[in-house]
Amino acid sequence: MKSKVFIVQIIMLLLTILVSSCLGCRIIDYDRLTEAQKQMIPYSHGESVNFIDSLGHPFVLTAKIGTSWHEPDDCFKSETRNVILQSEQGDWVISFYTEIWLGNQIIIGIRQFYSYINYDDNGRLVAENDQYLHNSLEIDNNTFYDVLEGNVSKNGRGEQYYYRFFYNKKYGILQLVDNEKVIFTIDKTKINN
To answer: Domain containing 52: what range?
Structure first.
């Protein structure tokens, strides 16, 4: 009798191991970005974003949006959202990247330089480190509210080189400055309010 109980216990143990190994990760946890997180990057796919360059000429960046799944392990997939603003010639590329594991943060890339845009649980921008949050800011004779001023930088050839950007969640990039020279500014006359 004891041998029958022992054999049944062995069979149950083997079945448990077999079932758990066969299941592996048949149930995958998909962690999706919320709509509020997606709206922190205010562009839609194919949208033309109009700017004015330093010489007063029109300058357009087109938005491309991609969604994919980052798989840190076999049982978990994390939604990622990539937004790229690119000029027709490809000489200007501004990228935004967010993923659920980043929390309330967007990575912004301008050419090979990167920084972060942080926000709180209520969707308000938060300044950190060398960033500054303006309640209101006048840019090219237009007033914008809740504007984050930040830098993207990289040390190259012994000198500090950086871009300064101005961003709000309603319009996105408002202005880009190279050291102290304005590269381009949003064309407010082309914005649908």
So the answer is: 29-190
